[in-house]
């Protein structure tokens, strides 16, 4: 969930009201946000860098607010304020105006861009006035969008430029790296693209983006009519066209691998910042020419219309409001609506700030939020069904109780473990074990999904050496085995495992538990009609003290005394005997 | 004769006696006497009163003096007939400083300054080392010192006052000079012979705990799981089969209308499998519908408008939520000829590749409830949550708008915890999006409401645990498991 930091006092000034922290938290709760932390810039830096953060760092109170992941329109102070004011009914939803001029600015894509980053959109904000705060907010919003919807600049990269320092028409091209040379943002001299890649390879923020284009034969580059480089997306803008506090006119370009997202991003930026333009909420469109010469006008700033039924909306939520009231509720969520068809339907205008609304159910949720989730009256339950247990879980519950009755203590161990736990430590090679392997483990504790319950129980014994002997543990749970016949290539198997650890290994005790469990499952001790033990050898077990448990011809598990090598591998100093069987045949 | 009996005989003749005296009389260690007294007292044969006495003991230095002589005597004995240079005396004689001044004041030596360097010479021919004599006597326990002398020795750190705790014994209510053997328990033999009528029984100690029974134990978290299962079953829910940890991305994400570029599908949040790496079996007609609704929209939706790739859907992973199973169940439900309302539940393990800390592990148990019926809405969800959480002891709930890719509306559930005196986030819930249900083939007027919570969190709150590793995994303290009470969720 993205988090934004806003200066509390600026926020209150823009909202036109001062709140206590609790009051603001309540407002957030109703709207669907969360006031995560009240802090200062100094405190934040101290957390990262330690107590010695220097003077000059701001001690103004900051609010860190959690924003839902699909609300790009709330990712900056401007959007948050608009959203809250409209929600409180203190202001009507903003109305955006698109201006198209015959000689509007244009951005031309070359065919080469298709190799690396095929899409681009652009817009112009005229007559804008920045303050330090709105400037910081502008940069911050781009950063937040880059992190979230742009998926760290891989899907979309944003570049903003001082329009008065450059001259259109603009070209978006993709060139071999060595042919790109410019003075990058905050640099003192011109460098070629390879030099810049080298320079930024140790830059804390930028190095993570280099991989997006590094290995491509061509790098994206945007230039103006005179060859001045505006930017090399998604890495860095040019110094020449950088935005300052004095900038009056802004050119915004977004290059992308996903056009839908680029449109959303552009719509979001211009919606948020057009309020600072000389003509409030007015946005100037640009023509973006595809390599084949056809053009599209951006930003789209589409206001979509969606029609919903009043009755369905009421029922979806469980309230009973007339069309007029529902329309009022929607307006408070920036969704202007009017009633139609005698008040039975609502025509809702979904603005370009609400790209998260893609289906009528999104509108139902907004109605419910405006109404207040906690005001909804409960409807008595009317779905009458009889309950039922999953057979294998029912059997597990019964057997758990029986094992506890028999004097064993239940353990709950981890499903994920290291390769050694199920192979080397038990005297076998991992290649011989039908295990499911995880491709991206962070540590070796998560290399494979367990194929046996035994290692987990042995680890539990090792961590509880202070308990009096004998220690008797059991667990009834799933292991995962590779199985080509299964839909996903692997299947779960429910196992029962018990260990006895004492001054003597005590094979007869786990053997006795096995007999008891079999008796409870009504399996006779008989070679043909029930179960029996068949001596066998296994590297994990002591020679001569190991047997396969055979149920009507099928091996369902093993029982025996653990080999000293296994005990040593699991750091156990007392002998153990163990039992592990598959209980699925009994379901 | 046994020590106990000796003590009884002594008391018989002497009414009252101090244990210290007994120790010296019997020449036994005082602690042994005290031990015997205590067992006699348990039989109520004697009564003891704690008392304190002080006596004087030699310090370490005092021991040394008793053995080797006082510092002044040692110094005196060091000096030859002809005398010794003072400087040399100070250097070679142990404790010379003290010895010199004491020997001088006792008149045993004098300083001859006639020659160049001062010479120490004997003044008297023989000396009497009274200090050593006194200390030797004290060591034996004979204390005839005057207060002045004693204080002097105390100042010289040769003596220290020691408090000795002892007991004053007198006869108890059951006093007798013979110890009757007391029986500890009634036996079958006593019943047989009738001996129980005349035997004496040791008083039972009602102030101690009894013998703990030998028994097995169930794990605390799994006891909570059993309680949750019961609540669902009592409410008429059917358990879903969740014994499949490895799932395809299709059922875990795509079928739930979670887009392929969603951050949750990142390798750093989800465990992807290297083996088995992919699933290739899917209900293809349904898969095509899912593909369409993601990439183009439909069913009243704009869709996400991106290129949906089957390769992404084929990737195997360790399921990140049991909602994947709910999706499979709803798809199965949709294949029925006629729709019937259903209530499903599941409680099983899910896996997340997140940062680990005191309250987060890579695997935990998710509890999930699902209700499917025609015309269900948010009000029904709120009602079912009220009923469910009341069973857990939470009577006050609050709902907060939230965002899930597959539910809309979505609500975070907050409950008021009376023990902690505050609101806590207890779960997540919502109405499944039509983009998820309609491609399955469910009738348009069927809505599905669902909610979920983790099993570990309420258990940790209930048992006051701060670290999840104290509840799950090999490092759990088995003593805690054995002492854990029955699970009563609403208490």
UniProtKB/TrEMBL annotation, chain A:
GO-annotated cellular components: phenylalanine-tRNA ligase complex
The family this protein is said to belong to = Belongs to the phenylalanyl-tRNA synthetase beta subunit family. Type 2 subfamily.
Q: What would you give as a GO molecular function for this chain, any one?
A: RNA binding
What broad class describes the main subcellular location of this protein? Answer: cytoplasm
Q: What are the entry keywords? A: Aminoacyl-tRNA synthetase, ATP-binding, Cytoplasm, Ligase, Magnesium, Metal-binding, Nucleotide-binding, Protein biosynthesis
For this protein's source organism, the top of the classification is:
Eukaryota, Metazoa, Ecdysozoa, Arthropoda, Hexapoda
- Give the quaternary structure: Tetramer of two alpha and two beta subunits.
So what EC number does this one have?
A: 6.1.1.20
Which protein are we looking at? Answer: Phenylalanine--tRNA ligase beta subunit
Against CDD domains, the record matches this protein to:
PheRS_beta_core
Q: Which organism is it from?
A: Spodoptera exigua (Beet armyworm)
The highest taxon in the source lineage is Eukaryota
From TrEMBL, chain B:
Keyword terms? Aminoacyl-tRNA synthetase, ATP-binding, Cytoplasm, Ligase, Magnesium, Metal-binding, Nucleotide-binding, Protein biosynthesis
A Gene Ontology biological process noted in the UniProt record is:
phenylalanyl-tRNA aminoacylation
Every Aminoacyl-transfer RNA synthetases class-II family profile domain range: 223-474
Under which EC number(s) is this enzyme classified?
6.1.1.20
Where does the protein end up?
A: Cytoplasm
Write down any Gene Ontology CC term.
phenylalanine-tRNA ligase complex
- Cofactor(s) for this protein? Mg(2+)
Q: Catalysed reaction(s)?
A: tRNA(Phe) + L-phenylalanine + ATP = L-phenylalanyl-tRNA(Phe) + AMP + diphosphate + H(+)
Annotated GO molecular function terms are:
ATP binding; metal ion binding; phenylalanine-tRNA ligase activity; tRNA binding
Record keywords: ATP-binding included?
Answer: yes
Transmembrane domains' residue ranges: none
Assembly and interaction partners: Tetramer of two alpha and two beta subunits.
Q: Which NCBIfam families does this one have?
A: pheS, PRK04172.1
- Family, similarity comment: Belongs to the class-II aminoacyl-tRNA synthetase family. Phe-tRNA synthetase alpha subunit type 2 subfamily.
**Entry-linked PANTHER family:** PHENYLALANINE--TRNA LIGASE ALPHA SUBUNIT, PHENYLALANYL-TRNA SYNTHETASE
Protein name (database record)? phenylalanine--tRNA ligase
Identify the species of origin: Spodoptera exigua
């Amino acid at each position: 969930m993205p988090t934004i930091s806003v200066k509390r006092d600026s926020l209150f000034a823009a909202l036109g009201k001062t709140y206590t922290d609790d009051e603001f938290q309540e407002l957030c709760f109703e709207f669907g946000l969360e006031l995560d932390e009240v802090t200062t810039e100094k405190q934040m830096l101290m957390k990262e860098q330690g107590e010695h953060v220097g003077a000059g760092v701001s001690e103004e109170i900051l609010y860190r607010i959690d924003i839902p992941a699909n609300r790009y329109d709330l990712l900056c102070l401007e959007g948050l304020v608009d959203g809250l004011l409209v929600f409180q009914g203190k202001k009507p939803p903003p109305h955006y105006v698109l201006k198209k001029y015959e000689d509007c600015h244009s951005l031309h894509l070359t065919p080469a861009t298709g190799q690396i980053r095929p899409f681009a959109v652009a817009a112009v904000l005229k007559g804008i006035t920045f303050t330090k705060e709105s400037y910081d907010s502008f940069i911050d919003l781009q950063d937040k969008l880059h992190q979230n919807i742009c998926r760290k600049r891989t899907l979309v990269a944003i570049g903003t430029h001082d329009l008065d320092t450059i001259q259109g028409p603009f070209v978006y091209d993709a060139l071999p790296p060595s042919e790109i040379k410019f003075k990058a943002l905050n640099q003192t001299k011109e460098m070629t693209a390879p030099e810049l890649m080298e320079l930024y390879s140790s830059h804390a923020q930028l190095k993570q983006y280099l991989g997006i284009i590094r290995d491509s034969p061509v790098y994206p580059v945007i230039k103006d009519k005179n060859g001045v480089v505006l930017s090399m997306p998604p890495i860095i803008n040019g110094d020449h066209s950088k935005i300052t506090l004095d900038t009056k006119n802004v050119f915004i370009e977004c290059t992308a691998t996903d056009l839908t997202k680029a449109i959303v991003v552009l719509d979001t930026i211009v919606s948020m910042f057009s309020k600072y333009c000389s003509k409030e909420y007015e946005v100037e469109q640009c023509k973006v020419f595809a390599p084949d010469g056809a053009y599209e006008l951006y930003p789209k700033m589409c206001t979509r219309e969606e029609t919903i039924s009043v009755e369905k909306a009421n029922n979806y939520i469980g309230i009973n409001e007339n069309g007029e009231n529902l329309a009022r509720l929607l307006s408070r969520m920036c969704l202007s609506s009017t009633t139609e068809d005698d008040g039975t339907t609502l025509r809702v205008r979904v603005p370009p700030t609400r790209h998260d609304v893609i289906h009528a159910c999104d509108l139902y949720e907004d109605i419910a939020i405006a109404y207040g989730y906690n005001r909804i009256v409960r409807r008595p339950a009317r779905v009458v069904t009889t309950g039922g247990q999953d057979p294998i879980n029912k059997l597990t519950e019964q057997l758990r109780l029986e094992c506890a009755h028999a004097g064993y203590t239940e353990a709950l161990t981890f499903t994920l473990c290291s390769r050694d736990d199920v192979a080397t430590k038990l005297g076998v090679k991992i290649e011989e074990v039908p295990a499911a392997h995880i491709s991206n483990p962070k540590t070796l504790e998560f290399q494979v999904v367990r194929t046996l319950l035994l290692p987990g129980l042995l680890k539990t014994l090792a961590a509880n050496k202070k308990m009096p002997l004998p220690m008797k543990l059991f667990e009834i749970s799933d292991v995962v085995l590779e199985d080509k016949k299964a839909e996903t290539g692997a299947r779960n198997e429910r196992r029962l495992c018990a260990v006895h650890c004492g001054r003597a290994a005590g094979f007869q005790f786990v053997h006795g538990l096995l007999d008891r469990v079999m008796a409870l499952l009504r399996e006779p001790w008989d070679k043909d009609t029930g179960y029996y033990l068949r001596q066998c050898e296994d590297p994990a077990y002591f020679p001569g003290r190991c047997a396969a448990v055979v149920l009507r011809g099928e091996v369902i598990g093993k029982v025996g005394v653990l080999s000293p090598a296994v005990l040593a591998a699991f750091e156990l100093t007392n002998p153990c005997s163990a039992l592990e069987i598959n209980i699925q045949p009994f379901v | 004769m046994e020590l106990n009996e000796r003590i009884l005989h002594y008391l018989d003749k002497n009414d009252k006696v101090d244990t210290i005296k007994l120790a010296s009389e019997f020449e036994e260690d005082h602690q042994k006497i005290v031990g015997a007294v205590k067992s006699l007292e348990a039989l109520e044969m004697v009564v003891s009163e704690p008392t304190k006495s002080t006596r004087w003991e030699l310090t370490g230095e005092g021991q040394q003096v008793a053995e080797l002589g006082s510092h002044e005597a040692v110094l005196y004995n060091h000096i030859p007939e002809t005398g010794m240079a003072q400087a040399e005396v100070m250097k070679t004689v142990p404790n010379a400083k003290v010895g010199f001044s004491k020997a001088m004041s006792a008149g045993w030596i004098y300083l001859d300054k006639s020659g160049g360097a001062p010479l120490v010479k004997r003044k008297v021919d023989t000396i009497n080392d009274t200090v050593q004599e006194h200390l030797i006597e004290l060591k034996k326990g004979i204390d005839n010192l005057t207060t002045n002398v004693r204080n002097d020795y105390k100042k010289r750190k040769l003596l220290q006052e020691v408090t000795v705790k002892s007991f004053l014994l007198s006869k108890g209510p059951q006093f007798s000079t013979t110890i009757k053997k007391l029986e500890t328990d009634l036996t079958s033999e006593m019943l047989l012979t009738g001996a129980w009528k005349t035997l004496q029984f040791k008083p039972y100690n009602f102030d101690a705990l009894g013998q703990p029974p030998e028994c097995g134990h169930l794990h605390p978290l799994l006891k909570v799981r059993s309680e949750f299962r019961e609540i669902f079953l009592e409410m008429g829910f059917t358990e879903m089969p969740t014994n499949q940890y490895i799932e395809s991305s299709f059922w875990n994400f795509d079928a739930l209308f979670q887009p392929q570029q969603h951050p949750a599908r990142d390798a750093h949040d989800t465990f992807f499998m290297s083996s088995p790496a992919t699933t290739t079996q899917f209900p293809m007609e349904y898969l095509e519908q899912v593909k369409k609704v993601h990439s183009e929209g439909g069913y009243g939706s704009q869709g996400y408008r991106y290129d949906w790739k089957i390769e992404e859907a084929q990737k195997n992973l360790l399921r990140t939520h049991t909602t994947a199973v709910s999706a499979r169940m709803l798809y199965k439900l949709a294949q029925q000829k006629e729709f019937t309302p259903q209530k499903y539940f599941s409680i099983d393990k899910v896996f997340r590749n997140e940062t680990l800390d005191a309250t987060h592990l890579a695997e935990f148990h998710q509890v999930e409830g699902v209700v499917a019926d025609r015309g269900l809405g948010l009000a029904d969800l709120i009602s079912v949550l009220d009923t469910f959480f009341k069973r857990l002891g939470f009577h006050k709930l609050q709902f907060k708008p939230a965002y899930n890719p597959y539910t809309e509306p979505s609500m975070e559930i907050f409950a008021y915890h009376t023990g902690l005196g505050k609101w806590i986030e207890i779960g997540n819930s919502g109405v499944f999006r039509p983009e998820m249900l309609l491609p399955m083939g469910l009738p348009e007027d069927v809505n599905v409401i669902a909610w979920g919570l983790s099993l570990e969190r309420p258990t940790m709150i209930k048992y006051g645990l701060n670290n999840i590793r104290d509840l799950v995994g090999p490092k759990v303290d088995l003593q805690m498991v054995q002492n854990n009470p029955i699970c009563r969720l609403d208490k």
